[in-house]
From TrEMBL:
GO CC terms in record: cytoplasm; nucleus
Record function comment: Histone chaperone that specifically mediates the genome-wide removal of histone H2A.Z/H2AZ1 from the nucleosome: removes H2A.Z/H2AZ1 from its normal sites of deposition, especially from enhancer and insulator regions. Not involved in deposition of H2A.Z/H2AZ1 in the nucleosome. May stabilize the evicted H2A.Z/H2AZ1-H2B dimer, thus shifting the equilibrium towards dissociation and the off-chromatin state. Inhibits activity of protein phosphatase 2A (PP2A). Does not inhibit protein phosphatase 1. May play a role in cerebellar development and synaptogenesis. Multifunctional protein that is involved in the regulation of many processes.
Residue ranges, annotated region (Disordered): 130-215
Extent of Acidic residues compositional bias: 131-187, 197-215
Localization per Swiss-Prot or TrEMBL: Cytoplasm; Nucleus
Molecular function GO terms recorded: histone binding; phosphatase inhibitor activity
Chief localization: cytoplasm
Protein encoded by which gene: Anp32e
Family as reported in the entry's similarity comment: Belongs to the ANP32 family.
Keywords in alphabetical order: Chaperone, Chromatin regulator, Cytoplasm, Leucine-rich repeat, Nucleus, Repeat
Stated name of the protein: Acidic leucine-rich nuclear phosphoprotein 32 family member
InterPro entries recorded: AN32 (IPR045081), Leu-rich_rpt (IPR001611), LRR_dom_sf (IPR032675)
Gene source species: Loxia curvirostra
């Protein structure tokens, strides 16, 4: 019944993942990033698989296995592997439904006219390393998620100013509270001042001293 399986950062033994077999007939998404996979020779037949993540492994060839066992792949990520030449990638021509291929951080990307060569070799694909031939970014599910995050960020940004205003309001409230306190304090001072004035009236010497200080 499993349709999605993520085995990232597990460790493969002799080029295979223990327990991954033909019984996963409903599998549509499989991710095996950074599992030290050296070969796809023991990949089981997964006829419904549409998306395969194999980034950061040590695969250098044998890609013809994919067309035999995962014929309906639409997305394939081989970034960070040991793929060096066009002959290796040519085996993907039989993946007729393949729309997106990622070879980022593979040595093959250093070839002259790399992108043009891949698009010419694999005419069924629309996106290479996340971009089409006109350098338009692929609108895949991951980008949608990112856009969702950006929307969240936008919401946060939009919410930012009111938040700032709220903080300012809080400061105003604090100021107003303080103001009230000051007013109370001023009332207390004025009250004391009145008492002092009365004392000064009673004590002429003190008043004279006060006048001298003022002068």
């Amino acid at each position: 019944q499993v349709t999605e399986l993520v085995l990232d950062n597990c460790r493969s033994s002799n080029g295979e993942i223990e327990g991954l077999n033909d019984s996963f007939k409903e599998l549509q998404f499989l991710s095996m990033a950074n599992v030290e996979l050296t070969s796809l020779a023991k990949l089981p037949t997964l006829s419904k698989l549409r998306k395969l993540e194999l980034s950061d492994n040590v695969i250098s060839g044998g890609l013809e296995v994919l067309a035999e066992r995962c014929p309906n792949l639409t997305y394939l990520n081989l970034s960070g592997n040991k793929i060096k030449d066009l002959g290796t990638v040519e085996a993907l021509q039989n993946l007729k439904n393949l729309k997106s291929l990622d070879l980022f951080n593979c040595e093959i990307t250093n070839l002259e006219d790399y992108r043009d060569s891949i698009f010419e070799l694999l005419q069924q694909i629309t996106y290479l390393d996340g971009f089409d031939q006109e350098d338009n970014e692929a609108p895949d599910s991951e980008d949608d998620d990112d856009e969702g995050d950006e929307d969240d960020d936008d919401d946060e940004n939009e919410a930012g100013p009111p938040g700032e205003y709220e903080e300012e309001d809080d400061e105003d409230d604090g100021a107003s509270d303080l103001g009230e306190g000051e007013e109370e304090e001023e009332v207390g001072l004025s009250y004391l001042m009145k008492e002092e004035i009365q004392d000064e009236e009673d004590d002429d010497d003190y008043v004279e001293g006060g006048d001298e200080e003022e002068e």
